[in-house]
Design a protein that fits this description.
The complex is a heterodimer of chains A (339) and B (386). Chain A is mainly alpha-helical and 339 residues long. Chain A has a domain of 182 residues: MetI-like (MetI-like fold), CATH 1.10.3720.10. Helix content of chain A is 68%, strand content 9%. In chain A, strand 2 and strand 3 form a beta hairpin. Chain A is extended and about 110 Å long. By secondary structure, chain B is an all-alpha fold. Chain B folds into two domains: 91 residues, no CATH class; 223 residues, MetI-like (MetI-like fold, Orthogonal Bundle), CATH 1.10.3720.10. Chain B is 78% helix and 2% strand. In chain B, strands 1-2 form a two-stranded antiparallel sheet. The radius of gyration of chain B is 25 Å and the shape is globular. Classes of the chains: A mainly alpha (339), B mainly alpha (386). At the A-B interface, helix 1, helix 4, helix 5, helix 6 and helix 7 of A face helix 1, helix 8, helix 9, helix 10 and helix 12 of B. Chain B: It is found in: Cell membrane. Chain B: It holds the Pfam family BPD_transp_1. Chain B: It comes from Pontivivens insulae. Chain B: It is a multi-pass membrane protein. Chain B: Belongs to the binding-protein-dependent transport system permease family.
């Protein structure tokens, strides 16, 4: 295919990606070093209150926003260096926490707490998703043909359901005296509140994520199981391999590329955990990196969005995903050079 | 069973464990969704009762005079099974039978819409009518035994005008699916047929873009979108629009965010189409575009339908982009639901939020029913070969 034809085919898609993915990255980088503020002026005014015999007057200074000729508030954008980053990272509080030896208080700073949660969430759910997905795939593959269709249908439901709604539907089972909380209370005889402390919410969020993604892993493993080489399996039996050994030495190596694929996708997706925070309304206890940026971008009570801090936290989030992806990219590069 | 060699046959205990786990998983997978659907048709007291039996049978809902008889339950179950069978088994065949060649995708769209409207008509139009007609005749079988009320759905859809959010969702979703497939098929085909280094690097770049958190990108758009009227003015003149709050701007953003995934997926589909096909067309004197249009387009629909489904899910399920880039007037359904739980003060509000949530996932339910096979084959084709 000639370059011109290739460019014509790929052009529209590439243009969209450049304008709406690459360009925003550059602008986020720029925004993270700049700060846009309203221009204020200090004016002296005389304020009088009625009095007798003369009005009581005092001179006060007030700060008020400067208006331009259209009557809108003037803004000025200035270079602020690393200021937005330091407001996100909060090195003073970090230093104080480290020097006092109170490591847990680091997690009270929004960014570090969010980073801790995001990483724990990603790394804990990863093996669970792969394990549960593989288990479902093997059991569905093991079942008789007639129940496979309905089983796949039911299994797909958690995967396609809107994430916010999925999180909400699990929340409603536990919130207050929801039926599952009531059930646990009658078992344990204690009063249980699932949404009163951070770690129970965190467990529910992880449970939700595994529930939501395991079907995806299942479908892919299920397809992989259809192509397992029967001859290899039979020769393993002849050699006296037990069921577990056959799974360990024949089936899992066959599925290895798929396991890597799922691990990669899951790494990307769970690093940007966000909908769980909305659905479980955990923002008082647990927040994620992406939610932190979202929160900066949401207008506060006076209608301002802290774009600079959002940009700084975006850049830091991005650095994180690049670090996670570097080993993979190096491997691809080596494979490409080798081929 | 005879086809399985004796040595591979499983002992009873293992079989039992295997089926047991499968049943357990299906229970976990379906239960939250089933339970939410049950809650949405009860009065608040029943919906949040701590005894599960009260939630299922709804004594207080029944006490208010809203309920279903044994007959109507059986009728409803029959209708649901029938809908599932038609959707899962027959719809695909009918579409392929009746749609003219080359227009299969339009056939699918029309078929799905007719199916959805038909299902809605059956459930909300014919079913209550038949039940009202027959229940009084049946005596004990016609007496209500199960509490059920649709008042929360009425409150959500009619009083709170949820249909405007529904229409916005449909607009955004339809736009995203159409544009991202048009742009994506071209790029996917180009990438699949070009073995050059450039194509490789484009795919790697797309992979990195795929990994970016969406909030990073939205941080880039938001200030630009709010002030777009100012800096588009030199180009577009007085009529320069403010992009913030415009559904079509959100469509373009979602299409772009979705492009990396779309081109990866479509590329692996195109690689499965033998390149001898378009080479033959080229030998016969077609240009590349001619070959694409005449030879590839007729055979590419399975891949396009599957990729379209995933674009649909992305646009329909999105919360972050639509919540930040659209204002209150043209909000889509998923962010709109947070409005319910921000004012979730009374239990009635809570059940209305549940009803809104069920309204959002109902179309997805029909979608899996119809496209189950395409979703499975699409995921596997994309993953196993790519």
């Amino acid at each position: 295919m000639k370059f011109r034809t290739f460019a014509a085919f790929v052009g529209p898609s590439l243009l969209l990606m450049m304008i709406f993915i690459a360009a925003p990255l550059v602008s986020v980088l720029w925004q993270s070093f700049h700060l846009t503020q309203n221009v204020f002026e200090t004016v002296e005014t005389e304020r009088c209150t009625p009095g007798f015999p003369n009005a009581v007057c005092e001179t006060i200074t007030v700060d008020r926003p400067v208006l331009d000729e259209n009557g809108e508030i003037q803004t000025v954008t200035s270079f602020v260096g690393w200021q937005s980053y330091s407001r996100v990272l909060d090195p003073d509080a970090l230093g104080a926490a480290i020097s006092s030896g109170d490591w847990w208080s680091i997690l009270n700073i929004d960014f570090w707490g969010a980073l801790r949660f995001t990483l724990t969430f990603t790394l804990v759910t990863l093996p669970l998703v792969i394990g549960v997905g593989l288990l479902i795939a093997i059991t569905v593959n093991n079942a008789v043909k007639t129940i496979r269709g309905p089983a796949i249908f039911i299994s797909l439901l958690p995967f396609i359901i809107t994430p916010v709604i999925g999180a909400l539907s699990i929340r409603w089972l536990f919130v207050g005296d929801g039926i599952l909380t009531a059930l646990m209370e009658s078992w344990s005889g204690q009063d249980i509140a699932m949404f009163a402390q951070g770690w129970t919410i965190e467990l529910l969020m992880m449970f939700y994520r595994v529930w939501h993604v395991a079907p995806f892993a299942f479908v892919i493993f299920y397809a992989g199981l259809q192509t397992v080489n029967m001859d290899t399996l039979e020769s393993a039996i002849i050699d006296g391999a037990s069921r577990f050994e056959r799974l360990r030495y024949v089936i899992v190596p066959h599925l290895m590329p798929l396991i890597v694929f799922i691990a990669l996708i899951h790494l990307m997706d769970s690093y940007r955990v966000f909908e769980e925070v909305i659905g479980f309304r955990s923002e008082a206890h647990r927040i994620s990196l992406q939610w932190l940026t979202f929160d900066y971008l949401t207008p506060d009570d006076s209608g301002n969005r802290s774009v600079s801090r959002a940009s700084a936290s975006s850049m830091l989030t991005m650095v994180g995903i690049v670090i996670l992806l570097v080993p993979l990219l190096r491997r691809t590069w080596r494979d490409h050079k080798g081929s | 069973m005879s086809s399985i060699p004796r040595a591979m046959q499983q002992p009873l205990g293992l079989k039992f464990a295997s089926y047991g786990f499968l049943a357990f998983w299906c229970l976990i997978a379906a239960f939250p969704i089933f339970w939410v659907a049950v809650m949405s048709v009860k009065t608040p007291v029943d919906a949040f009762a701590s005894s599960p039996l009260d939630v299922v049978f709804g004594p207080r809902t029944l006490g208010n005079g809203d309920g279903m008889s044994v007959f109507s339950i059986l009728l409803l179950l029959t209708l649901l099974v029938l809908t599932y069978r038609v959707g899962a088994r027959h719809l695909g065949k009918w579409v392929e039978q009746f749609s003219p060649p080359g227009l299969v995708i339009i056939g699918w769209i029309i078929g799905s819409i007719i199916f959805a409207i038909g299902a809605a008509f059956l459930m909300f139009g014919i079913y209550p009518f038949v039940v009202d007609l027959i229940d009084p005749i049946l005596g004990p079988l016609g007496r209500p035994v199960l509490g059920l009320t649709t008042e929360h759905y009425q409150a959500v859809w009619v009083d709170n005008e949820f249909y405007t959010n529904f229409l916005n969702s449909m607009l955004v979703t339809a736009g995203v699916v159409t544009i991202s497939l048009t742009v994506g098929t071209l790029a996917g085909y180009g990438l699949a047929r070009s073995g050059s280094n450039l194509a490789f690097w484009l795919l790697i770049m797309a992979l990195i873009f795929r990994a970016l958190p969406h909030s990073v990108l939205v941080t880039g758009y938001l200030p630009a979108f709010i002030n777009s009227a100012e800096f588009l003015e030199p180009i577009l003149g007085e009529s320069a629009p403010t992009l913030y709050g415009q559904p079509w701007a959100v469509i373009v953003v979602l299409v772009s965010i979705n492009q990396p995934f779309t081109i990866w997926m479509l590329r692996s589909f195109f690689q499965n189409i033998p390149s001898e096909l378009d080479e033959a067309a080229r030998v016969d004197g077609c240009s590349h575009f001619g070959a694409f249009r005449r030879v590839i387009m007729p055979v590419m629909w399975p891949g396009v339908i599957t990729t379209g489904l995933f674009s649909f899910l992305l646009a329909y399920n999105d919360y972050l982009v639509t919540a930040l880039l659209l204002d209150q007037q043209n909000q889509t359904m998923v962010p709109a639901i947070t409005g319910y739980f921000n004012r979730e003060t009374t239990t009635t509000d809570q059940v209305e939020a549940v009803a809104a949530a069920v309204s959002i996932i109902a179309p997805l339910f029909l979608l899996v029913m119809v496209f189950q096979r395409q979703i499975v084959s699409g995921l596997t084709a994309g993953a196993v070969k790519g």
